[in-house]
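Quick one, T. Sequence first:
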Amino acid sequence: MRGGELFLIATVTFVFPPLRCQNVSLEETLTNFNGSALTEVDFGSFREQFRRIYEVSSEEFYHRHFYFQNAIKRFAYLNSFSAAPPSAKYGINQFSDLSLDEFRDFYLRASADNAPLYSGPKREGLPDKFDWRDKTVVAPVQDQLACGSCWAFSVVGAMQAVQAIAGRPLEQLSVQQVLDCSFQNRGCNGGSTTRALSWLKQTRVKLVPQSEYSYKATTGICHFFSQSHAGVVLKDFAAHDFSGQEEAMMSQLVDWGPLVVTVDAVSWQDYLGGIIQHHCSSQQANHAVLVIGYDTTGDIPYWIVQNSWGTTWGNEGYAYVKIGGNVCGIADSVAVVSL
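Structure tokens:
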């Protein structure tokens, strides 16, 4: 897979399987940007809002319109699980004219290595809510674009946060450096967070600022720096499976910093906001994210997850995932870093 313009791909066709929830009314469950019933005109509104350049009556237009119509059916199915806040809501976003296969190929390219079950202590007296953004140690949401680089964004996000927690200025580090140089991974074609962390630990590569090695959304040739060049070195990391132990996972977050996590994000293609509780299995890890906080004060406790799909997705680039039950496999592969 290469980075670049999404809409050069026009030949993939995918028919969404029949909906299992036959009692859902599209008119009742689907709304457009202004809250009224969706119509054919909304595809034009979508194209304008997200700057789609394919021409009307072209083959590309036909395919994108077909995928958009399938997405509308998908929203009805996903929203049928619960209409009451704070449940997750699904609808039109920047991915609504991609087929399911295209979405997976472009954005869900992470893999997870098996992690040992956590057997350490669980800290008592955890706060009811905790958010590393309140400490100003979390960098702004990034956009990986059409490149399967989520694994690199997750790892780099944790390293730059832990550096700031240690008292250094918050600085965005180079995702592109990890993308190009982590030889055990496949660049934009995907990778593993634990393999990237292992590479950083073994080689003691110094991650340089993003300003020195900017993100290109395509795999390039590794740019080496001298030993005297300034940068951030990973000292160590620990990866564990916290399934059934999400309270212990909360203590890891508070004690060590944001968590590098791999999840099943197939249903996240249509996510608009709210707390994800349903239709998100732990069967196949495919996307890496950064867990930066939690909140247990409401009726539904949830993790605060920073994604790498830009601020137009989800809750301004964030997702909320229910704590308990290992929703989306969020507790299966969890890593902390130390510098």
